[in-house]
Amino acid sequence: MLYYFTYGFSLGLAAGISPGPVLALVISETINHGRKEGIKVAMALLITDIPIILFSMIVLYYLRDSNLIFGLLSVFGGFFLAYLSKDNFQAGEKVPVVRTRINSFRKGIIVNLLNPAPYVFWLTIGTPTLMKGWERSVLDSILFIVAFYICLVGSKVVVAYMVNKSKGFLRSSTYRWINFFLGILLLLMAVKFVYDGYNYLFIEL
Fold first, then answer.
1. Chunked in runs of 10, what are the mean pLDDT values of the chain (205 residues)?
2. Helices 67-90 & 127-136 angle (0-180, nearest 10)
3. How far apart are CA 61 and CA 54, in angstroms?
4. Closest CA to 84 of 197, 179, 160
5. Are 107 and 30 within 8 A, CB to CB?
6. What is the CA angle 15-118-40, rounded to 5?
7. Which residues, including other chains, have CB under 8 Å from residue 36's CB and lie 6 or more apart?
8. Minimal CA–CA distance to 127: which of 71, 186, 56?
9. Contact at 8 Å (CB) between 111 and 43?
10. Where are the beta strands (DSSP E) in 25-179?
11. Which of 96, 108, 97, 94 has its CA nearest to residue 36?
12. What is the pLDDT of residue 34?
C-alpha cells in the first residue's frame, strides 16, 4: 500500500516540476497574467489525462496476458524515465517564456493533448502500475493515482505561486537542487522498470 502511494508521489512530483511544455505554459501565464492563470493551466491536466488514461487502459487490457508486450513496455518505460531525468538535471539553465493571449485553461488542455509525453507515460509506466496495483488491491491503485495527481498538479500550482512571488525562483539554487534530487530518483525508477521488463521477457522466453 505504502509502495504505490510513494511511487505515485515520487513520479508526480518529478513530472510536476520537470521542464516541459505544460510547465513552460504555467510559467508564461503566471508571468503575463498572474498566478490565477498559471493555476488554471495546472488544473487542465485533470481534464486532459482522463481520456489518455482510459485509452491506455483499453489498449493494455487486451494485451494483459502477453508478458512479451509488458516486458517491452517496461523496458521502454525505463528508458523514457531516464530520458525525462535529463530535463531535471538541466533545470534552471533556461526558462522558456512565451507571451500569449489569455485563455489559460483552454491552452493548458490543448498543450497537454498535443504533448506526446503523457501518452507514452501512461502506456509504459502509469497504466501498467495501475493494473499491478489493481491485482493486489483496489486501494493500491487509488493511492497511486491520487498521490500522483496531488503532486503533479500541486507542484505546478506551487511553481505558479513562487514565480508570481519571485521571478528569480526558476534560476535559484533551491529549484536546481530539488530537480537534481528528482533526476536521481527518476534514474533509480528507470533501473527498476528495466529490471521488471527483463523479468517479464525472461518469463516469456
1. 86 84 83 86 92 87 73 80 74 54 81 82 87 86 93 93 77 75 79 81 64
2. 120
3. 10
4. 179
5. no
6. 70
7. none
8. 56
9. no
10. none
11. 108
12. 85
